[in-house]
């Protein structure tokens, strides 16, 4: 995946679905109507960021304890070929975005990727995700 394409994909947001009761939803709509937030999503993103800020120390400690890469980690075909040449296997542990280049073959991925643990988003072709499914926790 080209760096520009990766940069564009990381700017995209993942969609999630939540269920709210009518009273909570009504209060959100009221705050939007009164101009406190641009829309429902703005309020929800703000609330999530506030909660993540309150728990930032726990996140930092857990990232360190579990040896997670925090942020974005990209694996190119060249990266995996170098691992294969060295006879090494990869354990992907990421909190954020892990991506595997679109030109990585199933054979190369299976030969080099031992395990995948991602809290966030894994970007890889559907074929790779299917082949690596038993190694994804």
UniProtKB/TrEMBL annotation:
Protein name: CopG family transcriptional regulator
GO biological process: one example: regulation of DNA-templated transcription
InterPro entries from the UniProt entry: Arc_rbn_hlx_hlx (IPR013321), RHH_8 (IPR041088), Ribbon_hlx_hlx (IPR010985)
SUPFAM superfamilies in the record: Ribbon-helix-helix
Organism: Duganella fentianensis
Phylogenetic classification of the source organism: Bacteria, Pseudomonadati, Pseudomonadota, Betaproteobacteria, Burkholderiales
Superkingdom in the source lineage: Bacteria
